[in-house]
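task queued by scheduler; priority normal; single chain, no ligands, no partner chains; default sampling; output format set to C-alpha coordinates
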Amino acid sequence: TIYLWCMPYFILSFRIKDFSLLFKTLKGVSLVALLCEILRTFLYTSITNYSQESGYDALLPFAVFFISYLNDKKLRDIIFVVISLILILMSGSRGPLLCALLSFVSVFLYVNRLSRKTIFAVISLVLVYVLYSAFKDQVLLWILNQFKDLSVSTRTIEKILDGTLASDDIRVALIDESFSYAFNHPFIGSGFLNDRVYLYNFGFITSHTATVYGSYSHFIIAEVLMQFGLVTGSIVLLIFVKSILRRILCSNKND
Protein backbone atom coordinates (compact mmCIF):
# COMPACT_ATOMS: atom_id res chain seq x y z
CA THR A 1 0.00 0.00 0.00
CA ILE A 2 2.81 2.40 0.88
CA TYR A 3 4.62 1.90 -2.43
CA LEU A 4 1.65 1.32 -4.71
CA TRP A 5 -0.48 4.24 -3.50
CA CYS A 6 1.09 6.50 -0.86
CA MET A 7 4.57 6.94 -2.31
CA PRO A 8 3.49 7.87 -5.87
CA TYR A 9 0.99 10.41 -4.54
CA PHE A 10 3.62 11.82 -2.20
CA ILE A 11 6.03 12.30 -5.11
CA LEU A 12 3.29 13.86 -7.26
CA SER A 13 2.48 16.32 -4.47
CA PHE A 14 5.75 18.13 -5.17
CA ARG A 15 4.29 19.21 -8.53
CA ILE A 16 1.12 20.72 -7.07
CA LYS A 17 1.01 24.51 -7.37
CA ASP A 18 -2.56 25.32 -6.30
CA PHE A 19 -3.29 23.51 -3.03
CA SER A 20 -6.57 25.39 -2.58
CA LEU A 21 -7.92 23.81 -5.77
CA LEU A 22 -6.64 20.39 -4.66
CA PHE A 23 -8.32 20.73 -1.27
CA LYS A 24 -11.58 21.83 -2.87
CA THR A 25 -11.48 18.72 -5.05
CA LEU A 26 -10.66 16.53 -2.04
CA LYS A 27 -13.71 17.86 -0.19
CA GLY A 28 -15.94 16.78 -3.07
CA VAL A 29 -14.29 13.36 -3.28
CA SER A 30 -14.51 12.96 0.52
CA LEU A 31 -18.23 13.69 0.49
CA VAL A 32 -18.78 11.01 -2.15
CA ALA A 33 -16.55 8.57 -0.23
CA LEU A 34 -18.46 9.23 2.99
CA LEU A 35 -21.79 8.64 1.27
CA CYS A 36 -20.49 5.39 -0.26
CA GLU A 37 -19.31 4.17 3.14
CA ILE A 38 -22.68 4.92 4.73
CA LEU A 39 -24.49 3.04 1.97
CA ARG A 40 -22.07 0.11 2.17
CA THR A 41 -22.35 -0.09 5.95
CA PHE A 42 -26.10 0.19 6.39
CA LEU A 43 -27.75 -0.65 3.06
CA TYR A 44 -25.56 -2.46 0.56
CA THR A 45 -23.97 -5.04 2.83
CA SER A 46 -23.55 -5.81 6.49
CA ILE A 47 -20.02 -5.60 7.89
CA THR A 48 -20.57 -7.68 11.00
CA ASN A 49 -17.04 -9.00 10.48
CA TYR A 50 -13.75 -7.12 10.54
CA SER A 51 -13.43 -4.82 7.49
CA GLN A 52 -10.08 -3.08 7.18
CA GLU A 53 -11.01 -1.57 3.81
CA SER A 54 -14.08 0.20 5.24
CA GLY A 55 -12.02 1.71 8.04
CA TYR A 56 -9.33 3.10 5.76
CA ASP A 57 -11.90 4.35 3.22
CA ALA A 58 -13.45 6.47 5.97
CA LEU A 59 -10.05 8.00 6.82
CA LEU A 60 -10.04 10.38 3.84
CA PRO A 61 -13.27 12.20 4.75
CA PHE A 62 -12.18 12.25 8.41
CA ALA A 63 -8.88 14.00 7.62
CA VAL A 64 -10.22 16.35 4.94
CA PHE A 65 -13.26 17.55 6.88
CA PHE A 66 -11.23 17.92 10.07
CA ILE A 67 -8.78 20.24 8.30
CA SER A 68 -11.72 22.04 6.68
CA TYR A 69 -13.27 22.58 10.12
CA LEU A 70 -10.05 24.03 11.49
CA ASN A 71 -9.96 26.48 8.57
CA ASP A 72 -13.63 27.45 8.25
CA LYS A 73 -15.16 26.52 11.65
CA LYS A 74 -18.36 25.19 10.05
CA LEU A 75 -20.63 22.83 11.99
CA ARG A 76 -21.23 20.78 8.85
CA ASP A 77 -17.57 19.75 8.73
CA ILE A 78 -17.45 18.58 12.34
CA ILE A 79 -20.60 16.51 11.74
CA PHE A 80 -18.86 14.79 8.83
CA VAL A 81 -15.80 14.20 11.05
CA VAL A 82 -17.94 12.50 13.72
CA ILE A 83 -19.73 10.35 11.11
CA SER A 84 -16.38 9.29 9.65
CA LEU A 85 -15.05 8.36 13.09
CA ILE A 86 -18.16 6.29 13.83
CA LEU A 87 -17.72 4.44 10.52
CA ILE A 88 -14.09 3.75 11.41
CA LEU A 89 -15.18 2.27 14.73
CA MET A 90 -17.83 0.19 12.99
CA SER A 91 -15.22 -1.31 10.65
CA GLY A 92 -13.57 -3.11 13.55
CA SER A 93 -10.08 -2.21 12.30
CA ARG A 94 -7.57 -0.70 14.74
CA GLY A 95 -5.19 0.73 12.12
CA PRO A 96 -7.58 3.38 10.76
CA LEU A 97 -8.60 4.31 14.30
CA LEU A 98 -4.97 4.88 15.30
CA CYS A 99 -4.35 6.90 12.11
CA ALA A 100 -7.40 9.04 12.82
CA LEU A 101 -6.32 9.78 16.40
CA LEU A 102 -2.72 10.54 15.42
CA SER A 103 -3.78 12.79 12.54
CA PHE A 104 -6.22 14.60 14.83
CA VAL A 105 -3.51 15.33 17.40
CA SER A 106 -0.74 16.19 14.91
CA VAL A 107 -2.87 18.51 12.75
CA PHE A 108 -4.37 20.24 15.78
CA LEU A 109 -0.95 20.86 17.33
CA TYR A 110 0.49 21.99 13.98
CA VAL A 111 -2.30 24.53 13.44
CA ASN A 112 -2.56 25.86 16.99
CA ARG A 113 0.92 25.12 18.40
CA LEU A 114 1.15 26.37 22.03
CA SER A 115 -1.82 28.72 21.85
CA ARG A 116 -4.64 29.03 24.35
CA LYS A 117 -6.66 26.63 22.23
CA THR A 118 -3.99 23.97 22.64
CA ILE A 119 -3.86 24.39 26.42
CA PHE A 120 -7.68 24.33 26.61
CA ALA A 121 -7.80 21.22 24.42
CA VAL A 122 -5.23 19.40 26.58
CA ILE A 123 -7.16 20.22 29.76
CA SER A 124 -10.42 19.13 28.11
CA LEU A 125 -8.89 15.85 26.99
CA VAL A 126 -7.66 15.15 30.51
CA LEU A 127 -11.15 15.78 31.91
CA VAL A 128 -12.73 13.60 29.24
CA TYR A 129 -10.24 10.84 30.02
CA VAL A 130 -11.08 11.03 33.73
CA LEU A 131 -14.80 10.77 32.98
CA TYR A 132 -14.16 8.00 30.47
CA SER A 133 -12.13 6.04 33.03
CA ALA A 134 -14.95 6.34 35.56
CA PHE A 135 -17.71 5.16 33.20
CA LYS A 136 -15.70 3.23 30.59
CA ASP A 137 -17.41 -0.14 30.92
CA GLN A 138 -20.93 1.29 30.90
CA VAL A 139 -20.24 3.49 27.87
CA LEU A 140 -18.47 0.76 25.88
CA LEU A 141 -21.14 -1.84 26.66
CA TRP A 142 -23.82 0.59 25.47
CA ILE A 143 -21.90 1.22 22.22
CA LEU A 144 -21.33 -2.53 21.84
CA ASN A 145 -25.05 -3.22 22.08
CA GLN A 146 -25.85 -0.45 19.59
CA PHE A 147 -23.33 -1.87 17.11
CA LYS A 148 -24.82 -5.35 17.50
CA ASP A 149 -28.30 -3.99 16.84
CA LEU A 150 -26.99 -2.30 13.68
CA SER A 151 -25.24 -5.53 12.56
CA VAL A 152 -21.83 -3.88 12.26
CA SER A 153 -18.45 -5.06 13.51
CA THR A 154 -17.91 -4.96 17.28
CA ARG A 155 -14.27 -6.10 17.08
CA THR A 156 -12.67 -2.80 18.14
CA ILE A 157 -15.08 -2.24 21.05
CA GLU A 158 -14.61 -5.80 22.29
CA LYS A 159 -10.81 -5.43 22.20
CA ILE A 160 -11.04 -2.18 24.20
CA LEU A 161 -13.27 -3.89 26.77
CA ASP A 162 -11.01 -6.92 27.27
CA GLY A 163 -7.81 -4.81 27.20
CA THR A 164 -6.32 -6.39 24.07
CA LEU A 165 -6.60 -3.42 21.69
CA ALA A 166 -2.82 -2.91 21.53
CA SER A 167 -1.84 -6.59 21.58
CA ASP A 168 -1.32 -8.58 18.39
CA ASP A 169 0.91 -11.66 18.52
CA ILE A 170 0.69 -12.17 14.76
CA ARG A 171 1.97 -8.70 13.84
CA VAL A 172 4.65 -8.83 16.52
CA ALA A 173 5.95 -12.06 14.99
CA LEU A 174 5.91 -10.53 11.47
CA ILE A 175 7.72 -7.38 12.64
CA ASP A 176 10.34 -9.41 14.52
CA GLU A 177 10.96 -11.57 11.47
CA SER A 178 11.22 -8.47 9.24
CA PHE A 179 13.86 -6.87 11.48
CA SER A 180 15.71 -10.17 11.77
CA TYR A 181 15.84 -10.47 7.98
CA ALA A 182 17.04 -6.86 7.64
CA PHE A 183 19.88 -7.35 10.14
CA ASN A 184 20.99 -10.48 8.32
CA HIS A 185 20.91 -8.68 4.94
CA PRO A 186 22.50 -5.23 5.49
CA PHE A 187 22.89 -4.14 1.85
CA ILE A 188 20.47 -6.19 -0.28
CA GLY A 189 17.07 -7.04 1.15
CA SER A 190 14.25 -9.23 -0.08
CA GLY A 191 13.51 -6.89 -2.97
CA PHE A 192 10.56 -4.70 -3.82
CA LEU A 193 7.37 -6.31 -2.39
CA ASN A 194 9.10 -9.69 -2.13
CA ASP A 195 8.85 -9.40 1.65
CA ARG A 196 5.22 -10.49 1.33
CA VAL A 197 6.21 -13.77 -0.31
CA TYR A 198 8.90 -14.41 2.31
CA LEU A 199 6.58 -13.61 5.24
CA TYR A 200 3.82 -15.68 3.63
CA ASN A 201 6.09 -18.73 3.70
CA PHE A 202 7.20 -17.80 7.21
CA GLY A 203 3.54 -17.61 8.22
CA PHE A 204 2.83 -21.13 7.08
CA ILE A 205 5.81 -22.43 9.03
CA THR A 206 4.75 -20.68 12.25
CA SER A 207 0.96 -20.77 11.60
CA HIS A 208 0.72 -16.99 11.90
CA THR A 209 -0.73 -15.90 8.55
CA ALA A 210 -2.89 -17.40 5.82
CA THR A 211 -2.60 -15.25 2.67
CA VAL A 212 0.06 -13.28 0.80
CA TYR A 213 -2.22 -10.22 0.95
CA GLY A 214 -1.93 -9.96 4.73
CA SER A 215 1.66 -11.14 4.95
CA TYR A 216 3.49 -7.89 5.60
CA SER A 217 4.84 -6.32 8.75
CA HIS A 218 2.23 -3.52 9.03
CA PHE A 219 5.15 -1.27 10.05
CA ILE A 220 6.72 0.91 7.37
CA ILE A 221 10.19 1.03 8.98
CA ALA A 222 10.43 -2.76 9.22
CA GLU A 223 8.96 -3.07 5.72
CA VAL A 224 11.52 -0.74 4.10
CA LEU A 225 14.48 -2.23 5.97
CA MET A 226 13.49 -5.75 4.98
CA GLN A 227 12.98 -4.86 1.31
CA PHE A 228 16.17 -2.82 0.88
CA GLY A 229 18.44 -4.22 3.61
CA LEU A 230 19.48 -2.66 6.90
CA VAL A 231 21.99 -0.09 5.57
CA THR A 232 20.33 0.64 2.21
CA GLY A 233 16.90 0.76 3.81
CA SER A 234 18.10 3.22 6.45
CA ILE A 235 19.34 5.52 3.67
CA VAL A 236 15.94 5.26 1.94
CA LEU A 237 14.13 6.14 5.17
CA LEU A 238 16.42 9.14 5.78
CA ILE A 239 15.75 10.43 2.26
CA PHE A 240 12.02 9.96 2.81
CA VAL A 241 12.02 11.82 6.15
CA LYS A 242 14.19 14.60 4.70
CA SER A 243 11.72 15.03 1.83
CA ILE A 244 8.80 15.31 4.24
CA LEU A 245 10.59 17.89 6.40
CA ARG A 246 11.59 19.90 3.33
CA ARG A 247 7.99 19.86 2.14
CA ILE A 248 6.74 21.09 5.52
CA LEU A 249 9.36 23.86 5.69
CA CYS A 250 8.51 25.01 2.16
CA SER A 251 4.84 25.08 3.08
CA ASN A 252 5.59 27.22 6.17
CA LYS A 253 7.59 29.68 4.07
CA ASN A 254 4.74 30.01 1.57
CA ASP A 255 2.30 30.69 4.39
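post-processing summary
- The mean pLDDT is 76.
- The two ends are 31 Å apart (CA to CA).
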